[in-house]
Amino acid sequence: MNLTGQLIIGAENVAATAGTMKALNPATHEWIEPDFALGDAAHVHQAAVLADEAFDSYSHTSLSQRAAFLHSIADNLESVRSELASRAALETGLPQVQLEGEVNRAATQFRQFGEVVRQGRFLQLAIDPAQPERQPRPRMDHRLQKIAIGPVAIFGASNFPIAYSVAGGDTASALAAGATVILKAHNAHPGASEIQARAIRQAVQEHGLHEGVFSMVRGAGNTIGEALVDHPLIKAVTFTGSEHGGMALYRRAQRRPAPIPVFTEMTSVNPTFILPAALAVRNGQIGDGFIERMLVNVGQACLRPALLIAIKGPGLETLRSAMVKRVSEAAARTMLTPGIHASYLDGLKLMERAGARRIAQGGASHADFDGQSALLEVDGVRFLSEPLLAQEVFGPSALLVSVDDEAQLLAVARSLQGQLSAALHLENSDLALARRLLPVLERRTGRIVVNAFAHPQEVNYATVHGGPFPATSDSRFTSVGMSSIERFLRPVAYQGFPDVLLPEALREANPLQLPRLIDGQ
Ligand code: NAP
Q1: CATH of domain 7-266+473-490
Q2: Is pLDDT of 114 > 90?
Q3: What is the pTM of this model?
Q4: Counting C-beta atoms within 10 Å of the first and last residue's C-beta, which end of the chain has fewer, N or C?
C-alpha cells in the first residue's frame, strides 16, 4: 500500500494546510518517507460536521448490519497484517512479531464487539408496563434503551500503535455503541495510523455507510486536540497518555459551554505486594516474574508492574538478588519517542533525588533513545515521607520498597493513589493479612490479581482496565474489555408510546428476541 500521508476525512484524502511532518525511526534516528499532512481546526470542523451527519443513520443501523461492519474491519486489518506490523515496527522500534500480535488483538476486539452488538445486552432494555388500574395514580408504560452518545473524539495512544491506537479498543467500542468517530492520530506512528484508518474506511465503504462514520486527523502541537475537545458536535472524548495531557483535555472539556465526558487513562504503578509466607517460599520466582513483566514493551505499558512492596524478613535477600540479576542482564532497547526517552531519564533522576537508591541497571545504551533498565530501592519510612516516589516513571524501571512490618505495609497501601491494577502474592498463612489489605486496595484500584501479574491482560466481559484518579479520570468505566462500550452510551426512556413508534428492540412482540428486564424481572 502506498502511503498518501494525507488526512482521512470521510471518503476524502485531504492535503496539509498546517505543514507536514515525517515519521522518525527511533532505532536509527532516520526520518522515514513520506511526508504526512498536518491539519488544523478547519479539518476538525469538516470531520465533525460529517460525523454529525452520519450519526443518525449509523446509530440506527440494525444490530446485524453493525456487527457485520465490525467483522469487516477485523478482516481488513488482517489482510494488511504484515504491512501494518512492519511499518509500525519502523516507527516505534517494537519487534515486528509483537506488532503482528497487536494486529491480531485489534482484529479480535472488533469481532468480539461484533458479538456484543449481535447479543444486544448493551442496550440494557427495560420495560415497566402500564398499570392503568394502579391507585392512587395509574402508571404509564415506560421503556428504556441505551443509545449512542453522539460523535466522539478518540486520541490514539503512542505505546501500543495498533491495539490502543487508530484501530484500538476505543474505536471498536465506540463504533459498536453506534457512535461515529474522529480519531486524533498520534504523531509517533503516522504511517501505521494511515494503514489502519484506510482499513476502517474500506469497511465503511463496503457496507455502504455514510462516509462520516470514521475520520482521522493529525496536527502539530496541541491545536488539533484542543479543537476536537472544543467542537460543539463532539459529545465524548477518550484519551490514553500522560496525566498532564489527559488532565489538560479533561479540564478543557469541562469549560465548554456544554461540558462533555472525557475518559482518560493516564498513569499507574500497578503495586505488587508480596506477603510474608509467599516471600519466604517463592522469593526468587516472584522477583523473576516481576522483572519479566516490568520489561514488557521496554516498560512502556500501562500495566507494567513498577512498585514491589515486601516485608523485611526471610526471602527478601533472595528476592532482591533475583531482581538485580534479571535487571542487570536486560539489554537496553529502543524507546518509542525521544520525548518518552527524555522523560524516563528525568523520572529516574527525580526518584534518586527523592531518596531511592539504584541497586541495579541493565546493559548500557548504544543509541540515543535506548532505555537502560533500572532497579531502585527505598525503605518504607522514606517511601511514606516522599510522595514523589509513588509516581510513575514510564520506562523499564521499578522500585522495591522494603517495609518493617505489616502495619507499614498497610500504611504504604493506604498512601497510594488510584491504580489500574494491584497484585498480591500469598500463601494460605497470608490470608489474614490479605483480608486486611483487600479493602484498602479495592478503594484504590480497578483490578486485583492474586499470585500472578496484571500483564498480559485478557480482553473480555469481566475485564476492568480502569481505576480511581489518576489511573483514569472516571473510575466508573473501563477502557478495555466488553463493558468499555458503556462509555459511549446514554439511556433514553420512551413513555406512553404506541407500539409502531417504538424502537424495534422495545416493541411488545420483541421481534429481535433480545433480553429485556420486564417489571424488574
Ligand atoms: P501525551 O503527551 O499525553 O500525548 C498523547 C496524545 O494527546 C497526543 O496525541 C498529544 O498530541 C495529545 N495531547 C497531549 N496533551 C495535549 C494537550 N494539552 N492538548 C491537546 N492535545 C494534547 O502522551 P505520549 O506522547 O504518548 O507520551 C508522553 C508520556 O505519556 C509518557 O512519557 C508517559 O509518561 C505517558 N504515557 C502513559 C501511558 C500509560 O498507559 N500510562 C501511555 C502512553 C504515554 P501531540 O503529540 O500532538 O502533542
Answers
A1: 3.40.605.10
A2: yes
A3: 0.97
A4: C
